[in-house]
Amino acid sequence: MTSTALPTTDELRARARACLRNIGAEVAEGEDFPARTPITGEPLFGLRAAGETDVEEALTAARAAFLTWRTTPAPRRGDLVRRLGELLREHRSDLADLVTVEAGKIRSEALGEVQEMIDICDFAVGLSRQLYGRTIASERPGHRLAETWHPLGVVGVVSAFNFPVAVWSWNTAVALVCGDTVVWKPSELTPLTALACHRLLARAAEETGAPRDVHRLLLGDRAVGERLVDDPRVALVSATGSTRMGREVGPRVAARLGRSLLELGGNNAAIVAPSADLDLAVQGIVFAAAGTAGQRCTTLRRLIVHRDIADSLAERLTTVYGKLPVGDPFDATTLVGPLVTTGALDRMQHALTRVRADGGELLAGGNRRLAEAAPAAAYTEPALVRVDEQTDVVREETFAPILYVLGYDTLDEAIALHNDVPQGLSSSIFTRDQREAEVFLSAAGSDCGIANVNIGTSGAEIGGAFGGEKDTGGGRESGSDAWKSYMRSATNTVNYSGELTLAQGVSFL
Ligand code: NAD
């Protein structure tokens, strides 16, 4: 199914301009850095990319702002984030429109992404009164041993196109309450949403009396990101994107002994056991695999199904895949919007060619859509492919809607298949057998940072730590004690005894 006609680029440009105007953001037009829309694949505005002097100026300003911000009491820092959350509520619709224009998300998912920003602001405001250290029992009489947490410095945030605003907010809301300042290099594919977020935060800073330079924005491609990566003034580089990017960023930051927090690619799987509620599983699988046109880091890419139910489940999925409405993400009936670029579509087609050559059987989808109406855009039917084994292409992350379906006989075999990929982000099992669920969640089960039961791999909530192992980079953001990545701890020993007692019973002098 293809939903109704696409809007024109002129209409989308006018819509983006109106949203930016409502938010108060300005677009400096006429330069060489284009903002595009995947809805038509065409350019909307020319912007200006940051040059070397812009990076230098931003880092100097953010470092200077840090010196003030770090001594502002944390609950007062929370005031800034609370105000940001209010402004996000006020401009929810404008921001969601910009996410749809620039990342191609359907309206409901774009609104969901903005809701996630609001949720992390709430979370971070609470956190601003809970940056707890602890008191540790000292072995020495008359001594107090304590752990305290202090702001870290400038945080360089490098973000991906597919969550253009949420990932920024996970990092920024938490970093700000932790007393850090932020320099943000968004994806080159999503500069307009970045301009909007930066403006809202600047307004929140003006209104709450926070230093203007608590947040700086640098538009540009990876070269701008590389400058942040290499600059010793950036205490923490929080980089979200492909494993390729992480492999470049991680060693470069480590070479200057800086800190990095890496949130990289996934190759997420769900196991469907014979006892699974298949109605629920089908819903969970289709949202996780085809939602966001397969462009979530947590997108379901592999389905490991017990052989007793593999044929019937594949049949049901084939029927649903045949009816998924593909098209204009602003159309309320659309469930699958465009891929971000035609390059992404080429990579999807290439993966489908490879998996077929490996013996895979295409059960549904995979065809390009709307090529005549929008030749520069990349609409595709999500693809469902039955495979016998995990060949190289199955073990890679292709950032597009391809779901590979594999069979298994024993749970041990399913878990081994599940973990036999380089990535370790998200995972799930559909089962009504509690023992199976517990094995999957145990130390001998899923090796991912996220492991779910009877729900798909995508759609995490704020509050739980988000991130994964192996090629996913090991970072954790947005919940639990992920805030500790944005602070430095100090151990304090205070002697109030009047005598000098050395630890471990050492005597001296
Ligand atoms: P990408 O790696 O192409 O780019 C991500 C960002 O990194 C961009 O801002 C880019 O300019 C910058 N960059 C690229 N190379 C760099 C370098 N050498 N030094 C500094 N900066 C560099 O990723 P993308 O296509 O925008 O996003 C999709 C990828 O991101 C997928 O692999 C997806 O799984 C992953 N992702 C992961 C998470 C997570 O939380 N684990 C979240 C969203 C996306």
List the topology elements.
Layout: H1 9-23, E1 33-36, E2 43-47, H2 52-69, H3 74-90, H4 92-103, H5 107-127, E3 134-136, E4 143-151, E5 154-158, H6 166-177, E6 181-185, H7 191-208, E7 215-217, H8 222-230, E8 234-240, H9 243-255, E9 259-263, E10 268-272, H10 278-290, E11 300-306, H11 307-321, H12 342-357, E12 361-364, E13 368-369, E14 379-380, E15 383-386, H13 392-395, E16 402-408, H14 411-419, E17 423-424, E18 426-430, H15 434-441, E19 450-453, E20 469-470, E21 487-495
Parallel strand pairs: 5-6, 5-8, 6-7, 8-9, 10-11, 10-18, 11-16, 15-16, 18-19
Antiparallel strand pairs: 1-2, 3-4, 4-21, 12-15, 13-14, 17-20
Organism: Streptomyces fuscichromogenes
Protein name: aldehyde dehydrogenase (NAD(+))
Subunit structure: Homotetramer.
Keywords for this structure?
509 residues; alpha/beta; Aldehyde Dehydrogenase, Chain A, domain 1; Aldehyde Dehydrogenase, Chain A, domain 2; 7-stranded mixed sheet; 5-stranded parallel sheet; NAD; EC 1.2.1.3
Outline the structure in words:
Keywords: NAD, Oxidoreductase. Pfam families: Aldedh. Residues 30-489 form the Aldehyde dehydrogenase domain. The active site is at residue 263. This protein is of the alpha/beta class and 509 residues long. It folds into 2 domains: 9-263 and 479-489, Aldehyde Dehydrogenase, Chain A, domain 1 (3-Layer(aba) Sandwich); 268-465, Aldehyde Dehydrogenase, Chain A, domain 2. It is built from 15 helices and 21 strands. β18, α15 (434-441) and β19 (450-453) form a beta-alpha-beta unit. The structure holds nicotinamide-adenine-dinucleotide.
